[in-house]
Write a structure and sequence with these properties.
Elements: H1 7-16, H2 19-29, H3 37-40, H4 58-62, E1 70-72, E2 75-77, H5 80-87, H6 90-113
Antiparallel strand pairs: 1-2
Amino acid sequence: MSGPISTDAHFQAWMAASEERRQAAHAALIGRPEADPAEERTYSLKELPPFFGLSHYTSLARLEVQRVGISYGGRLRYRLEDVRRWLQSDECKAIREERRRARREHDEKKVMAT
């Protein structure tokens, strides 16, 4: 290439690029060339269940996955790796055990009432 690229040409190239290429270029500009665009993608709570074999987002909400959300303008977004890490954490395991215990107690009370 001979000489600087015009702003117009730069903008056209940017608009023609895929979203992944744009994210990679942005990561390189801010000094993070190792950033993988797939890892940087964020999802809403409602988009997460299929990644974890769930049918509805309420299961994740009950496991308090909101703790690892990133707030963008008041809306929580989630990175898959952060959610995976949370679901495997000891704190989340304790929440699951407590929910199981409460459900068993509830079921036992129902059986005794009949």
